[in-house]
UniProtKB/TrEMBL annotation:
Protein name: SH3 domain binding glutamate rich protein like 2
Keywords annotated in UniProt: Nucleus, SH3-binding
Source lineage: Eukaryota, Metazoa, Chordata, Craniata, Vertebrata
Record family assignment: Belongs to the SH3BGR family.
Domain of life: Eukaryota
GO MF terms held by the record: SH3 domain binding
Annotated localization: Nucleus
Any one annotated GO CC term: nucleus
Length: 170
């Protein structure tokens, strides 16, 4: 199962702009963007806020990790999984945005549409949390958990590994 998640994400081949990808939102800094959109980095986006895909800070363009969550889920398991992902990202100071799919149908539909077909459940819709690096699908909670257990979260997220990570070992 460990390699299946990463392989499925790579095999999806989703590129910026394919299948109705989100347009870029350029920001001077995360703090200015937060002030402009009425939210803070790592917090749920305001329903009137356009989805964030790109950030530009000091002439540096970088990808943004987006965690699609459901703030009004009745499932304790889903809430715990969402909290696990968010807490891990916060604890490791990984910049991310939460996208609440319960606030805008457009966000929910975008998430469903951009999860590769081979990662879709046999029945029903994919459940949150779902993780993307910009428009590139990373995986669901199970894939995240496997990456966390094997200390390969940075690769899973498509980020450069940090010094203490196993990912630097040959």
């Amino acid at each position: 199962r460990g390699g299946r998640c990463a392989a499925a994400a790579r095999a999806s081949g989703l590129q910026r702009g394919e299948q109705g990808g989100l347009g870029p939102v350029l920001q001077a800094t995360p703090q200015l963007a937060a002030a402009a959109f009425g939210c803070r980095s790592g917090s749920s986006l305001n329903p009137s806020t356009p989805p964030l895909g790109w950030r530009e800070a000091a002439n540096e363009v970088r990808m943004v990790i987006r965690v699609f969550i459901a703030s009004s889920s009745g499932s304790v398991a889903i809430k715990k999984r969402q909290q696990d992902v968010v807490r891990f990202l916060e604890a490791n100071r990984i910049d991310f945005e939460e996208v609440d799919i319960t606030m805008l149908e457009e966000q929910r539909q975008w998430m469903y549409k951009n999860i590769p077909e081979e990662r879709q459940p046999a029945q029903g819709n994919p459940l949150p949390p779902q993780i993307f690096n910009d428009d590139q699908y990373c995986g669901d909670y199970d894939c995240f958990f496997e990456a966390k257990e094997s200390n390969t979260v940075f690769s899973f997220l498509g980020l450069k590994p940090r010094l203490a990570s196993k990912e630097l070992e040959p």
